[in-house]
Amino acid sequence: MKYPDKALPLALLFFSTIFLNGCAVAYKSTAKVLIGYVEDEGVDYFLTTDDPQSACRMSETLGPLLLSFGRVTKPPEHLATILDFLAGVCAEEQAKEAGLRYLRAIYKKDVTEARDAQILYKRHMALAAKRELKAYQAMTTVFGDLDSDQCPSFRDRHEELYFMVGLISGIQSLNNDIAANSAAGVPYNVAYRVLRGSRCLDNEQWWGVPKSVEAAIELILPSETPPQVDPYQQLADSAEVGSRMGVNLARFLQLQTYYSKGETDHAQDAIRTYVRERKTAPANSDARLMDEFAALEIQYISDSLWTQATGSRTPAGGLGTFWDDKPTSKSSLPIDIDGL
Question: In angstroms, rounded to a whole number, what is the distance separating the alpha carbons of residues 79 and 51?
């Protein structure tokens, strides 16, 4: 039987349309299953892990795949907030290693090494700021731009968590962009929007983080209106709340504020307090990841202080001790001489 000349092209078009439509349906189904699973089960699992490096590397590798499903279904902005925040942690980790290399070079008066390390530090900080800004923007896509004092409505505790992570990402993106000479272009109004948003969360329920964010912003970017309470006292009180609940994000924010303002003595006292209190208040098992993230940041600030003073980071097992401590016995020396 002889077919008309146009029959074959029409048949190919017909079957191609069916095939492509079938793929589109499969893509959407796959997207709903994967995104739903990660939001319902994966996020809770991440929060209970004690390995923030593993979580951030997972976000770097699988994040683009999961977020790409936003091309065939509703963009998973909740999930993007968590994944971009964790990916930012990875970039911060690389930046901080370069920062310690810079401090060692300064200690040795190696100008060439210091210059190269500083360039690398700023590159990684710019990447961290870019990722954290994306996490903040994903949060505002869901909850609004925080242009007014009106708070968003939260359906459940998960939504409050995404909101808080977005706030932390916003203030971290601004801090890291300042360290990178504004290479990522994070707008300064992020700080004031985060300040408004922090007042929408219960301080006791969320480990002292909301009041810590508020106090940190008031100290770093003071407004024309004096704060109603002492920001330093607010930082200390919120840090105690977090320590009691086993999530030391507020302690990290307190310490970061001291360090950024050059208040070394207060920073050392905060680290000592953190080490002492963690012995009596272990990490919250339901939010272990957030506490371990804070631990990484606190360790880095301790390493920075040690490196500036001695040329090397905090000795193994020496967190909470400092080079100028007065030893009471050989076992209390901040540096293990025998280990050298």
Answer: 19
Is 8 buried (19+), middle (13-18) or exposed (0-12) by CB count in 10 A? exposed
State which amino acid sits at residue 227.
P
pLDDT digits (tens, 9 = 90+) for 94-150: 999 999 999 999 999 999 999 999 999 999 999 999 999 999 999 999 999 898 889
Q: What would the two tokens of residue 138 be?
A: 């994903």
Query: Running DSSP on this structure, what letter comes out for residue 69?
Result: G
Q: Which helix (H) or strand (E) holds 284?
A: none
**DSSP letters along 119-144, please?**
HHHHHHHHHHHHHHHHHHHHHHHHH-
For 13, the enclosing helix (H) or strand (E) is helix 7-37
Q: What is d(CA 254, CA 239) in angstroms, rounded to the nearest whole number? A: 7
- Using CA atoms, how far apart are residues 131 and 184, in angstroms rounded to an integer? 9
Instruction: Encode pLDDT of 26-48 as tens digits.
Output: 777 777 777 777 777 878 888 89
pTM attached to this predicted model:
0.85
Cβ neighbours of residue 291 closer than 8 Å, sequence gap 6 or more: 246, 247, 248, 249, 283, 284
Let me know if 166 is exposed, middle or buried by CB neighbors in 10 A (0-12, 13-18, 19+).
buried
- Please state, in angstroms and rounded to a whole number, the distance separating the CA atoms of residues 209 and 297: 15
Amino acid at 189: N
